[in-house]
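Lecture notes, unit on binding sites. The following record was shown on slide 14. It pairs a sequence with 2-acetamido-2-deoxy-beta-D-glucopyranose.
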Amino acid sequence: MNSLVFCVIFLLISCSGLQLPSSFKKCDRRRSDFNRCLSKAVYKAVKVLDKPLKLYGLPSLHDVAFPPDFFSEFGNSTYGLRQKYTNYRLIGLTKPQNIVARLDFGPLTSTLIIEATYPKLDWEVELEAQGTLVLLPLNVKTPLDFTFENPTFTFTFELEEYEKGATYFRVIDSGLDMQAHGIKFDFKHLFSNRHLNKEFNSEMSAKGRQICILFKS
Ligand SMILES: *[C@@H]1O[C@H](CO)[C@@H](O)[C@H](O)[C@H]1NC(C)=O
């Protein structure tokens, strides 16, 4: 146990005696610079996963499609606007600017915190909307692209140790927090009037910071 050489990939795959890809950095948890090493290891691993590593069963993280049953819904079609956002895709997760990772070892569980900052991250979504915008009737289905500007994603993983020939971690809980300096919106055709559509996108983008807070909830 105290000679455990820990590597981040064990967190990403349920590993059954697999060798690590040679491109993955290893860190020794007994060393005082462990967290700095871990940050570099995560940074490198995320970059490598721009392409899938088929041999290790690891998918690419470059273009992540969320499951179709993942959606967000707001509003009401009788009083206001019912909006349903589906088919989320997140593009660019493998291009971080910086990663700060920390692993706090506890007696029962350990906590891994990864703070990843990006120059930008692109999302693609489908929007269905029915109801009224102020009093203007609206019944549309449109693609929406939006970009987080200078986002920071904070991933938290609760880990439990288990033995299988060696000591490994399994993720028993996880969380995500997102902060962004702004959001740029591009509703492809929310309004049939192209001028209105363009001006609406620019007004939404100008209020991106406020909308960020709504989006998070
Ligand atoms: C919208 O909200 C009102 C008031 O809460 C409710 O009476 C109505 O049934 C809702 N309509 C729909 C379509 O959900």
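Take-home: Confidence is low (pLDDT under 50) at residues 1-16.
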